[in-house]
Structures are given as C-alpha cells and as structure tokens.
C-alpha cells in the first residue's frame, strides 16, 4: 500500500519515500511539515482552564516549532522552538476552554512527531457560575 498526497500544482506525491523533496527537480530541498491537533477541552468544555507547562515528544524533531491557539480565536501563538527530543519543556500562559496545538518545521531527516504532554499539576480549573 502507498500513501499519496497532492500539492497546489496538481502533482501527485508519494509520501514516506525519503527525507527530501524531489518534486521540484532537486533532491536537496528539505520537507516542510505541520501537525495540527483538533481542539481539546481537557475534560470539560464549560470549565475555564490554565495550562502553564507543556513538553513536546519527537524523534529528530529539533528545530521544529510548537504553537497553540485558545478557544478557536485568532491565529496560533508561537510557544517555543523544539531543541530536545526528550526534555523539551515550555512555559506558557494559556487560559481558556479549548486548546489547539501545532508542531511544525522543516527537516531533511526522518522526523517523527510522537506528541506532547501537558504537565498535569500545572492545570488549574475554575467553573463559571
């Protein structure tokens, strides 16, 4: 089975076949990537939450970026750059009901995005009354 995709120029692209972009005629162009998670309510949508510590989990994900958007409003805010695959912790001041996270970057190695951890003791909750 092959995984394929397409670009804005109508070219068909086979995925997971290398570490560089050969579509433009050059095999030396790094591949851009972005993984955006769907909005998460972290247990209850009606509860206002504060998230202050997040850790990313990658394999060869250095030089990527970690971003967040709160309550589907505005654009994504840059939280920080990924510089370690295991101990990459960000301090953030996110306050809202739902949270979207995005990991993006450019690479010419086999990069794996494993996910992220919201460090639980740092989630504060309040219920509107």
Keywords:
129 residues; mainly beta; Jelly Rolls; five-stranded antiparallel beta sheet; 0% helix
Helix content: under 10%
CA-atom Rg in angstroms: 17 Å
Strand content: over 45%
Count of alpha/pi helices: 0
Structural class: mainly beta
Strand order in the sheet with the most strands = 3-4-9-6-7
Q: Describe the main β-sheet briefly.
A: 5 strands, antiparallel
Please give a quick description of this structure.
The protein is mostly beta strands and 129 residues long. The chain has no helices and eleven strands.
Describe the structure.
The protein has about 130 residues and is mostly beta strands. The protein has a single domain, classed as Sandwich (Jelly Rolls). It is built from no helices and 11 strands. It has strands spanning about 5, 10-15, 20, 30-35, 45-60, 65-70, 75-80, 90-95, 100-105, 110-120, 125. The chain has a 5-stranded antiparallel β-sheet, with no helix packed on it. Strands 5, 8, 10 and 11 form a 4-stranded antiparallel β-sheet that branches. A two-stranded antiparallel ribbon has the order 1-2. It is globular, with a radius of gyration of 17 Å.
Q: What is the topological layout?
A:
Layout: E1 4-6, E2 12-14, E3 20-21, E4 29-36, E5 47-59, E6 65-70, E7 77-81, E8 88-96, E9 99-107, E10 112-118, E11 123-127
Antiparallel strand pairs: 1-2, 3-4, 4-9, 5-8, 5-10, 5-11, 6-7, 6-9
């Amino acid at each position: 089975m092959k995984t394929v995709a397409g670009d804005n120029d109508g070219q068909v692209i086979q995925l997971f076949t290398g570490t560089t972009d050969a579509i433009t005629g050059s095999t030396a162009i790094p591949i851009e990537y972005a993984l955006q998670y769907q909005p998460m309510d972290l247990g209850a949508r009606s509860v206002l939450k504060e998230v202050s510590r997040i850790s990313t989990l990658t394999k060869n994900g250095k030089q990527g970026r970690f971003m967040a958007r709160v309550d589907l409003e505005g654009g994504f805010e840059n939280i920080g750059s990924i510089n370690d695959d295991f101990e990459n912790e960000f301090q953030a001041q996110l306050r809202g009901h739902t949270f979207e996270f995005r990991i993006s970057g450019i690479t010419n190695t086999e990069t794996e995005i494993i996910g992220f951890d919201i460090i639980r003791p740092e989630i504060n909750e309040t219920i509107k009354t």
